[in-house]
Amino acid sequence: MKLYMMRHGETDWNKQGRIQGSADIPLNDYGIALAEQTRDGMRAEGIHFDHVFTSPYVRARETARIIGGVKEEELKVRETIREMSFGSFEGVRLSEVRTNPKYHDFNLCFEDPVHYVPQGTAESYKEVFSRTRAFLKEDILPLEGQCEAALVVCHGAILRALLSIIGKLPLEEYWNIHQPNCSVNLAQVSGGEITMIKERILYYHAKHMRGGIL
Q1: Looking at the DSSP assignment, which residues form a beta bridge with residue 147?
Q2: Which residues contact 45 (CB under 8 A, 6 or more apart)?
Q3: Distance between CA 199 and CA 185 in Å, rounded?
Q4: What tens digit of pLDDT does each residue of 62-119 get?
Q5: Which residues are bridge partners to 118 per DSSP?
Q6: CA-CA distance, 89 to 87, in Å (whole number)?
Q7: What's the confidence (pLDDT) of residue 205?
Q8: Are the C-beta atoms of 69 and 42 separated by less than 8 Å?
Q9: SS3 at position 140
């Protein structure tokens, strides 16, 4: 079975470089266009999906509906692949987090994830990896032999967790995984194992790749 995992289209907060996390921000016009171009590019290669999984957040659901060519009610919405929560820091520009001393402790989330300690309602990497592993175990692996292809539409941090788990990457490499909006990653599910085939596939041609990291 082929497994396609991708990041949602662009939002205004992506464009502005703001940290989104659990903030439920919709796609902007450019994000919708990216999703439509990605859909058309995948269809041109004969790619279709038997199952379409998505995060509950609107930016992911909108992207999944466009890419999968399905109705809203046909989406398989999973809380396990919602974006990582960054608590009270959501909405802050990432550039400010990296330069303003008052954000020093939170900046460890991106600069030194191994030693990052979340504050308030923000999630830990342990929590994110736990629910991402649960998604793969409970929703993806059981599909082997039952279908040909499945699509997963999620977010920057969750996509990095998926790729880290599948590729057995150390946490230190987490933010070195570059995933633009609507980038697609292809894996193979066989013998109860998931192996990567190709990462960061772009089915669109953008003049400027933007969207930040979250």
Answers
A1: none
A2: none
A3: 4
A4: 999 999 999 999 999 999 999 999 999 999 999 999 999 999 999 999 999 999 999 9
A5: none
A6: 5
A7: 77
A8: no
A9: helix
